[in-house]
Every structure is written in structure tokens, then in C-alpha cells.
Amino acid sequence: RFLYRSLLDWRRQQARERHLPPPYILTLKALLAIAEYRPTDIDALLTLPGIGPKTASEYAADLLALVRQHT
Questions:
Q1: Residue 34: partners with Cβ closer than 8 Å, 6 or more residues away
Q2: Predicted model pTM
Q3: What's the whole-number mean pLDDT along residues 6-31?
Q4: Measured distance CA(18)–CA(27) in Å, rounded
Q5: Closest CA to 8 of 21, 22, 20
């Protein structure tokens, strides 16, 4: 639960900075998958729904750091 909340907060911040709606950053489905599967590297991240190469290259460092903080 705490990881999911952190992911939501991160997405909200990214959306504000980029002047985009939050789902343009990552969908709720993608955030739930990250919270559930807790990927440890970019290859694992790429197996999750809603995460493609562009998203992974742009956000992997942040997302993986959040996962590490909550394990």
C-alpha cells in the first residue's frame, strides 16, 4: 500500500512538472502492477502492462528507486 501511494504521488508530481494529465505519465494499471510485482531492474519493468521502452527509458530510474525504498 505504501509503495502504491508513493507511486501515485510521484505520478502527480511528474504530471504537474510536465503539464500533462497523470494518466499520460503512467496508468493506474501500470502503477498497480509496479506495486504488486516490485520490479528490480528495467527488464522486469518492461514486462509490466503499460510500460514500454519509451516509458522505461524516461522513468525507470525513478520507479526502481521507489520500489527499492519500499522493500
A1: 3, 7, 45, 48, 51, 63, 67
A2: 0.94
A3: 97
A4: 16
A5: 22
